[in-house]
Amino acid sequence: MKNLFFTVSIILSSYSVFSQTANSPTNELAQKKQKENQISGAKVGQMACRDESGKLTLCSGAEFENIQGIITNEPFITINKPASPNANRRVFQAYVSLANGTIEKGTNLCTGKGGTLQTCTKGWLPFAIAAENATTEGSLIKVQVIDLR
């Protein structure tokens, strides 16, 4: 009888802990953080920035954007995070724009419109370097991040 009472006590206390966890302040904070890290319509390979209010958005190509990095997961955004622990932490697939000219392997890349990367204009600090050539507008190419902000 003593063992049965002990077992029932453990089960009831475990149930109590788990039921409180679902509505705990920590869980609500995690849900809020996940919601903040969503960008409607974002795709893996686009560039994420923070606007003036601190909201996560797609980069627009402005010179002094608050760049967060390349989106590596969606709809809950992760940035500059490899798909596996053994993957290179600086090489990712990214969408590119040919708006500032062709992109060849070794080209310095800065943010462009719509969350893309494009050839840097004179004086801009690059975020990444093209690891392969881009053949068409909107291509998804391999890039090496050189500025982890």
Order of helices and strands: HHEEEEEEEEE
Q: How many angstroms does the end-to-end distance come to? A: 62 Å
Structural class: alpha+beta
Q: List low-confidence stretches.
A: 1-21
Residues in helices, as a percent range: 10-25%
Q: Give me the number of helical elements.
A: 2
Overall shape = globular
- What's the story with the biggest beta sheet? 5 strands, antiparallel
The radius of gyration computed from the alpha-carbon positions, rounded to a whole number of angstroms, is 22 Å
Oligomer: single chain
Mean pLDDT, as a whole number? 79
Number of domain modules: 2
Number of strands: 9
Question: What spatial order of strands do you see in the largest sheet?
Answer: 5-9-8-6-7
Beta content:
25-35%
